[in-house]
Amino acid sequence: MSEEENDKVTLDLSRKQLKKVPKQDDAQNVRVLKLDENELQKIDNIDSYLKIEVLSLSKNQLLRMYGVCRLHCLRELNLSFNGILSIEGLKDCIHLRHLNLEGNNIKTIEHLNNNIKLEYLNLAENSIGSISDISFLKNLKELYLQGNRLTHLRQCDKYYPYPWKF
User: Fold this and answer.
1) Above 80 in pLDDT, residue 63?
2) In the predicted model, what is the mean pLDDT of the chain?
3) Less Cβ around it within 10 Å: N or C end of the chain?
4) Sorted alphabetically, which PROSITE patterns does this protein's record hold (predicted)?
5) Residue 36, pLDDT score
6) Which neighbouring-strand residues pair with 77?
7) What does the alpha-carbon distance between residue 46 and residue 44 come to, in Å, rounded to a whole number?
8) How far from 66 is each of 33, 91, 155, CA to CA, in Å?
9) Rounded to an integer, what distance in angstroms lies between the CA atom of residue 75 and that of residue 112?
């Protein structure tokens, strides 16, 4: 483990039946926050964790992404298997490289224009019907779209010449 990884404080509060994000005295030191498999319906109290780089909220009861917009250091965000309806609140997360929104109820890919550093985007098992131009995601290396209602990728073939599987 590198010295840099060693310095990252991880707080794992997964499977604790939490209904709210707990406040922590040392929240400003936390770099990795795991809140998977809880009963969270909102991302409250997240602004005390302003320096987190990795946030995982998989398998909760979230309907909105509201709250992550203040996390300017965020590099990795996992909101898979919730009930999220749309992509929102990521405008100021300009360092975001990894975004997992698998297993939600998202219908369109939008509001990612500022997330040009994204390398990994998982939107599998949503309700997406079509994708228009995503050429601004120039660093994208992995895109997962299986289990959606896609019939074609409009204006994407010139940026991604190899065939995609739906």
Assistant:
1) yes
2) 88
3) N
4) LRR (PS51450)
5) 99
6) 55, 99
7) 5
8) 17, 11, 30
9) 14
> What are 21-53's pLDDT values in tens digits?
999 999 999 999 999 999 999 998 898 999 999
To the question of pTM greater than 0.85 for the whole model, the response is: yes
Write the CA distances from 135 to 116, 124, 160, integer angstroms.
10, 19, 9
Residue bearing tokens 């994407």: 156
DSSP code per residue over the chain: --HHHHH-EEEE-TTS--SSPPP-TTGGGEEEEE--SS--SS--SGGGGTT-SEEE--SS-----TTGGG-TT--EEE--SS---S--S-TT-TT--EEE-TTS------S-TT-TT--EEE--SS----B---TT-TT--EEE-TTS----BTTTTTT--SPP--
Fold (topology level) of 1-165: 3.80.10
Residue 161 has pLDDT above 50, yes or no: no
Amino acid (one-letter) located at 161: P
